[in-house]
């Protein structure tokens, strides 16, 4: 069951905390545990709350686990029998993971800005001189070239996610994008953390569930979308049923049962695992195809969770079991990340 919390401020945080510690552990013994007691969890889960969020979690800069929840070790079914071929479980799929802390939300522009201000880090997109940026094409553009919704935009970077002229003003609460796997790892290591493995990410994304409902479009019992993904005919018509065209601030929709926001939709998320298995074509179009011809091709890595571009007629990867490949050093406007801290 997903719960939507409508309170804000300290009252909202207290309500979220009470809800978190009251949730039962999963049958395998994992999930939210007592290490979350008395922690300030993010007061998110509705449009007013996500819009008001600064992008920096409570006690940022003073708490080593700021913005995180702890998940106890547990087992889950890794993969899906209902999705694409490369999602099929091996054997019965039962996989066990150790306990870890994980970010409640994608890393935000505000958090990544804090990292850069502290370290002087220069991202891969800034060094490469650009990145792959999505735009809604016209019919003329679609007829003129393949993958017309992707363009390599010179000057695009995490600071300028749509290219020169764009900025982070007013979007500190959105997921940072235009970051490569190396950028994500640099941020994680600054905090003494890491990127999740694919198995760790999926354990967190499934939040103790293993039913067929995990492979359906995320909607509530009224039929309303409960994540930011594409409704309509991709890439020309977005019906905007979910309330967002493009990226949304983090935490606009109810958390999953592990109190994690946006594990499905909004932005794909980097993992630390190399992509293997039965290759599936990028259903949102291979962003490498629009990169400069002189650019070398890097190792394909697993990304998880889908993005605002996933639709039922083109991507169908708005699911916790979904997986896709992205070259490790290719920045794109629909890919972000979250971090974990493993138990010692």
Automatic annotation (TrEMBL):
<feature type="domain" description="Sulfatase-modifying factor enzyme-like">
    <location>
        <begin position="66"/>
        <end position="340"/>
    </location>
</feature>
<dbReference type="GO" id="GO:0120147">
    <property type="term" value="F:formylglycine-generating oxidase activity"/>
</dbReference>
<dbReference type="InterPro" id="IPR042095">
    <property type="entry name" value="SUMF_sf"/>
</dbReference>
<dbReference type="Pfam" id="PF03781">
    <property type="entry name" value="FGE-sulfatase"/>
</dbReference>
<keyword id="KW-0732">Signal</keyword>
<dbReference type="InterPro" id="IPR051043">
    <property type="entry name" value="Sulfatase_Mod_Factor_Kinase"/>
</dbReference>
<protein>
    <submittedName>
        <fullName>Sulfatase modifying factor 1 (C-alpha-formyglycine-generating enzyme 1)</fullName>
    </submittedName>
</protein>
<feature type="signal peptide">
    <location>
        <begin position="1"/>
        <end position="22"/>
    </location>
</feature>
<dbReference type="InterPro" id="IPR016187">
    <property type="entry name" value="CTDL_fold"/>
</dbReference>
<dbReference type="InterPro" id="IPR005532">
    <property type="entry name" value="SUMF_dom"/>
</dbReference>
């Amino acid at each position: 069951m997903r719960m939507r919390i409508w309170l804000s401020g300290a009252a909202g945080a207290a309500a979220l905390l009470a809800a978190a510690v009251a949730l039962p552990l999963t049958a395998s013994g994992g999930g939210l545990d007592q290490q979350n007691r008395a922690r300030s969890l993010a007061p998110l889960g509705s449009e007013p709350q996500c819009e008001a969020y600064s992008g920096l979690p409570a006690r940022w800069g003073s708490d080593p686990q700021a913005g995180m929840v702890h998940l106890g070790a547990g087992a889950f079914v890794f993969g899906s029998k209902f999705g694409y071929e490369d999602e099929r479980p091996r054997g019965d799929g039962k996989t066990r993971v150790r306990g870890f802390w994980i970010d409640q939300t994608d890393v935000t522009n505000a958090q990544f800005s804090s990292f850069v201000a502290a370290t002087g880090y220069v991202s891969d997109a800034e060094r490469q001189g650009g990145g792959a940026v999505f735009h809604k094409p016209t019919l003329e553009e679609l007829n003129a070239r393949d993958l017309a919704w992707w363009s390599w935009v010179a000057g695009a970077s995490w600071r300028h996610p749509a290219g020169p002229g764009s900025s982070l003003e007013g979007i500190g609460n959105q997921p940072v994008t235009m970051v490569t796997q190396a950028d994500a790892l640099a941020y994680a290591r600054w905090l003494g953390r890491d990127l999740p493995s694919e198995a760790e990410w999926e354990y967190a994304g499934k939040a103790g569930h293993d039913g067929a409902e995990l492979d359906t479009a995320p909607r509530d019992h009224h039929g309303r979308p409960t994540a930011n993904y594409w409704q309509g005919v991709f890439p020309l018509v977005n019906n905007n049923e979910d309330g967002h065209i493009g990226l949304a601030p983090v935490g606009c929709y109810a958390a999953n049962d592990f109190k994690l926001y946006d594990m499905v939709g909004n932005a794909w998320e980097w993992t630390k695992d190399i992509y293997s298995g039965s290759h599936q074509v990028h259903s949102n179009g291979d962003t490498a195809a629009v990169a400069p011809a002189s650019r070398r091709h890097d190792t394909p890595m697993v990304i998880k969770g889908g993005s605002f571009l996933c639709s039922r007629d083109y991507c169908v990867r708005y699911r916790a079991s979904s997986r896709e490949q992205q070259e490790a050093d290719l920045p794109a406007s629909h890919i972000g990340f979250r971090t974990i801290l493993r138990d010692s």
